[in-house]
Amino acid sequence: MKRILAVATLALSLAACDAAVLSGGSEDDALDIPEVADGDISQETMVDLTRELSSDEFEGRMPGTEGGRMTVDLLKTRFEEAGLEPGNNGSWVQDVPLVEITGSDFAPLSITGGDASGMAFEYGKDWVGVSYRETPRTRINDSELVFVGYGINAPERDWNDYEGLDMEGKTAVILVNDPDFDSEDLEGTFNGKAMTYYGRWTYKFEEAARQGAAAALIIHETEPASYGWNVVESSWSGPQAYPQRGEDAPAPTKMNGWIQNGVAEQIFEAAGKDLGELKDAAKKQGFKAVSLGLDASTSFENESREYMSQNVIGILPGTKRPGEYVLHTAHWDHLGRCKPADDGDDICNGAVDNATGTAALVALAEAHAKAGAADRSLVFLAVTAEEQGLLGSSYYAQNPVFPLDQTVGGVNMDAFMIAGPSRDVTVVGPGKSQLDEFLEAALEADGRVATPNPSPEAGYYYRSDHFPFAKQGVPMLYIDGGEDLVEGGREAGEAVSKDYRDNRYHGPKDEFDENWDWSGVMADLQLYYRLGRMMAMSTSWPNWVEGDEFRGIRDESCAATNEGC
After folding, report:
1. Can you list the domains of the chain with their CATH numbers?
2. What's the confidence (pLDDT) of residue 562?
């Protein structure tokens, strides 16, 4: 799960947004949005499957483990029982080639030079690091530390934190998020308060590698990261999965990692630098990277193995336009065994994240099958290795089973808020595509409203499995349970979100609870059912709004084909 609700300070209904913005064009661009009946969605399926997938027997559903294999087998069975057909040319799965690297015997992160004599930091407590290279041992020896601000190279925004640098053999020290994250509005070089992709850790590590850096260290801060150090420590320790690299693939850094903000302050002080002042400088156009005059060293062992994981794909073929596809996605994986809780429990069960979303795929498949085939084909895609960086969804988006220019659009489900019914739903990335009109119609039918993501600075739109499809031009919706609860209002909803974020997210205590109130989840599922059914019964091809970063990709894709959009 990459969508954790932060405390909302402002709730704005999408119903108040300008209709032209939501529709992506003029009033002449009317969409065919049919009315659909309620779906017959099984709460029993949701409860039983969430309970089973998050049981200790599945050991946290890590790809490449027995628990991962059990998850794939279970989904194949449940998709078939739901009434779907195998989605990949007679097969239920799409193989996803991965490599797993497990680090061990971590030496301290030692800093030398300047006033740093004897400075060493403990793995886990102070820093974490992994290697993307399939080598038995990673060694960082006396690598010069260079503070590169936010680590962004964006020519279209006239911004290059690496300008004039030769990073060969050096370690990039990078701020989390992007320069505008603490803005009060959505205006600025990097969209103001709303995070761009340049703020995501995935981009920062990729860019450091492109610059030739030996290593990259992101300075963790809870607010701009949108999660605490406990999440970093859990997510970045233990086995890490990556795509298998081809022979001609560009080389990644030797090591990518994170350091605590307090650790960074000590390092900068030893370098005679003020971290706070440099943070402020890095927010301004024309910032120049600063060598800290210090060197970093560490080492650790790596155990590597190549393996195949699987995306699980089922389809309910359409009756009138079977070659047009509506996509439902959710990731089936979680973290496996992770940092133990105080009671010794080391299984990150991932009940909310994302056994609930996985169970929802099956429950929706059952409901659509009961209702009978739609005009368009409905595809249900359970993807692997989301927690390692959206690997399964990225692989499908780059190797689609069903042509993307014939994929109408879709919805993504990544963890359901279990807090009882709410008056609203949270929209991550509102105003981006004409799918907002389908959402408005579905919400009106259910008597609910939409609330834009209260924390655009957290970059949630770039943190779940809809994003790889959006990058390929496919319109995708990502919505989450709302915080304006029927019982207790927004204060109660914010408390539930905070409790989950602080105490269970990416930890061993994200476990199934027999006392959960499923009524809100079932209401959200009804919304997902309406959205999928509306798109599958429509004749329209919704597009991104004019000016959206994905509009050109979709237009180019559509212009290149005689079929589909």
Report:
1. 14-91+317-559 (3.40.630.10), 103-304 (3.50.30.30)
2. 63
